Amino acid sequence: MKLVKADKSYNKELIQFYQETVLPGLVGLSFHRKDNFFNQYKLLSSDYVTYLLIDEKGEVHTTATIIFQKCILDGQEETIGYATDLRVSRSRRAIREWATHFLPILIKERDERNCKYIFSSIGDKRNQAQNALIRPRSIKRNLPRYHLFRKYRLINVHGKYPFSAKPLNTLEVRYATNYDLKKIEAYIRKKQQNRLIVFPHFGKDLMTAIKNWNGLKIENFLMAIDDNSEIVGLVALWNKSKIQDVYPMTTSKRVKSFQGTLRFLSWLGLAKKLFYKNKPFNITLMSHLYVDNPDIFYTLLHKAYKTSAKKSFLSYVHFEGDLNTIPPRSFITSKLSYGLYCILAKEDPIPDFLKPRTLKEPPDFDPSFI
């Protein structure tokens, strides 16, 4: 097998490989990229690289992508990487050969950009990935070291219980217009001040930052405004279906039971189904989420759920210890647990920012990363 740095000439092969490779979990997932495979990465940065392992017949057996971004990390300007979309076929040869390439690739690409740290997410139910990457059987293998940075959950909001608490009536909650742009940028800068990882372009030039987010506009930003006309909560509602569809391929007994419950509640008008037969998930992502307190978050979530598409459920990232975005009990939710890891080589020193900071502000981390 040979290692190849992918470009647009591999677009068709990549789309097919991702569609055919089912990601295991409580729900086995198949990812269907639209038109341009790389549009997923352009959401976050123009600097990304995808590697492939290809056999003698030209068939793809392994892929992985690293996205590089400028950020403020623990008060310092840094370039950080995010490793994502690792897919490996069941071929033992592919698994063995990829293990020899993975660390050299990471070191090569980060050194070319003077990048010290690369992060990655791994789901708690991805047992194979956890055993291979986080808990390798042999410490002598030339594999990168995964150090847990922060645990988080992807919260899916499917419905709302009757007779639940009412949202705050002291706030104006409305969608933004171009006239609100400067206020939104100022609010994002304010909320980013105490965060360990910050992408400052969100607060400096938001329109440029979201220009590659196909379908995301300033009108998708939902604001909570107080009596002083100040923004106290913000979230952008966005559907990624123009870039990628996600299909459920296999479901566990637990998920089938939950789907049955949601189907019954949907007849009562209290919830939305998890998925529909032979159709992709209909998900509205809650990105660029910043709030001042839990009551404001509840009010924003209430409005977002009320105004979202009839068959679409909401999805947002909640970091462990973030008291502002704990899923409210008034809503019917499900969750997927993840760990955000920092990937280091054996000889790399462990940075101070990896020390436990459970109750600190969450990093800037969007559901689009997952």
Would you write up a description of this structure?
The structure is a single chain. This protein has 370 residues and is of the alpha+beta class. Helix content is 25%, strand content 34%. The protein is built from nine helices and 15 strands. The chain has helices at residues 11-20, 39-42, 92-112, 127-134, 181-192, 201-204, 206-209, 253-267, 294-307; strands at 2-5, 27-33, 47-54, 60-73, 76-88, 117-123, 145-160, 172-175, 197-198, 221-225, 231-238, 244-251, 283-291, 313-319, 331-344. The strands form two sheets. Strands 1, 3, 4, 5, 6, 7, 8, 9, 10, 11, 13, 14 and 15 form a 13-stranded mixed sheet that branches. The longest helix is centred in the first third of the chain and has 21 residues, at 92-112. It is globular and about 65 Å long. The model is unreliable at 127-137 (pLDDT under 50).
Task: Describe the structure using short key phrases.
370 residues, 13-stranded mixed sheet, 25% helix
In terms of per-residue confidence, which ranges show pLDDT below 50 for 5 or more consecutive residues? 127-137
Measured distance between first and last alpha carbons = 28 Å
- What is the count of DSSP helices, taking H or I runs of 4+ residues? 9
> SSE string, helix = H, strand = E?
EHEHEEEHEHEEHEHHEEEHEHEE
> What's the alpha carbon Rg, rounded to whole Å?
21 Å
Give the beta-strand count: 15
Proportion of residues in helical segments: 10-25%
By helix and strand content, what is the structural category? Answer: alpha+beta
What kind of sheet is the major sheet?
A: 13 strands, mixed
Strand content: 25-35%
Mean pLDDT equals: 88
